[in-house]
Amino acid sequence: MSFTLAIVGRPNVGKSTLFNRLVGKRLALVDDTPGVTRDLREGAARLGDLRFTVIDTAGLEDATDDSLEGRMRRLTERAVEMADVCLFVIDARAGVTPVDEIFADILRKRSGHVILAANKAEGAAAEPGVYEAWGLGLGDPVQISAEHGEGMNELYARLMPLSDGFAARTEAEAPEIDVAIDEDADPDGETVPAYAAPTPERPLQVAVVGRPNAGKSTLINTILGEERLLTGPEAGITRDAISLALDWDGLPVRLFDTAGMRKKARVQHKLEKLSVSDGLRAVKFAEVVVVLLDAAIPFEQQDLRIADLAEREGRAVVVAVNKWDIEEDRQGKLRALKEAFDRLLPQLRGAPLVTVSARTGKGLDRLRLAVQKAHEVWNRRIPTAQLNRWLAGMIEQHPPPAPGGRRIKLRYMTQAKTRPPGFVVMCSHPDKMPESYRRYLVGGLRTDFDMPGTPIRLHLRSQS
Ligand code: GDP
Ligand code: GDP
């Protein structure tokens, strides 16, 4: 049994782009169907194994009269009436606008299912908008990029339990049935979208980055088990980012190889400059970034820069130390590496460090597992009830400070986003919170919920 999904939101947030992505070539314009006006587009949509009807309120942009708001209201209300589920789209890059608030009001008053989507969420520029979207009071936003096809797994995970509910309803012809709760739902009754594991259709996107000669091409060749990429002793022999989809011992991945990043001083030609931005681009595409270091010359300036960029872009990071086969004092080296890592990249604390030999293939199993785990953690969602029990324990153990004699009260906490995990803590005087206490909370989250290899964002908000 299928259901009907209405895509609503103000003009320009990406509704049509999403509609086209869901409908693909199966678009059927049915504007002569009774009840469907020319303002509403309808199509047969597909997402994974889900089949449903999608309605798009695209005609709105043509509104030239001054009663745009009235028209928008009527159109949205009609779409909402026709639909089982509403997908309310905002533009995460633009943030929440007053017009979005009007939509949120309409949708909040409606009792049906509403899924909030923060579109244009590719890259870090969208992060503030995702938190603003969370503040609309319509639940956690699904982060998507309609244009790049990102976040479709999570959208699927949100729709799936609902569609089960509709199917059950038709079969039993019982008009009232609760929303089906997926298998990962916690005992407190919250619906937690399942982790969407990589599939051949949606492989895990991995970028291998590192300086020229770190061994990136060798690594990829070994994984491929065949000489598909050109390797050699010359620095920067691969000039462009190359992407390859492959099955890495059962894990579907798309690997982005990048030309080695050169020291700025050595950048001479245009092409070499290009290769630096290729590395940066690969980071933006990736879900997990493998920073490949040469054990003989680890943590040089450009290694640090790219690792820092990956963190700021919110990617999961795994550090791999290569050429371990020719390392003599392994114990001593490992200790030194860990020390240097903590000192030079404190922002990546908790990222796994794996020693490998791209040439012999030793350690690549551990690398694959670290990549897989980092991806899973990066996507993880912790139920609110569990978080608040944890928060209470943290406060008891170490109460927040009282700047100027007024104690900061932490009231409530929830996870507002994933990829990477982002948390919101409602508190008094968020501006007075010292950095050390924030670090205490982030560090606690990382260890208590076992979240290596992913940036963790923590936002403090005052209750309004
Ligand atoms: P609608 O008016 O809500 O139907 O929006 P459109 O689908 O026409 O998209 C408006 C603009 O946003 C177009 O220029 C799209 O190319 C752009 N857009 C749509 N989705 C995305 C996205 O995921 N990321 C970015 N960066 N731009 C997008
Ligand atoms: P890229 O520039 O990062 O793609 O590096 P390459 O894959 O071209 O490797 C640069 C040089 O390092 C080549 O001479 C490789 O044979 C060598 N190399 C790569 N991986 C290893 C390794 O695990 N052990 C050793 N001993 N040498 C390696």
TrEMBL record:
Where does the chain bind GTP 1?
9-16, 56-60, 119-122
Q: Name one GO molecular function term.
A: hydrolase activity
Q: Where is the EngA-type G domain?
A: 3-167, 204-379
Q: Any idea which positions bind GTP 2?
A: 210-217, 257-261, 322-325
Gene3D superfamilies reported in the protein's UniProt record: 3.30.300.20, P-loop containing nucleotide triphosphate hydrolases
* Top-level taxon in the UniProt lineage: Bacteria
The UniProt entry, under PANTHER family, shows: GTPASE DER
Task: State the protein's purpose.
Answer: GTPase that plays an essential role in the late steps of ribosome biogenesis.
Q: What interactions and quaternary structure are annotated?
A: Associates with the 50S ribosomal subunit.
State the protein's name: GTPase Der
Protein source organism: Roseovarius ramblicola
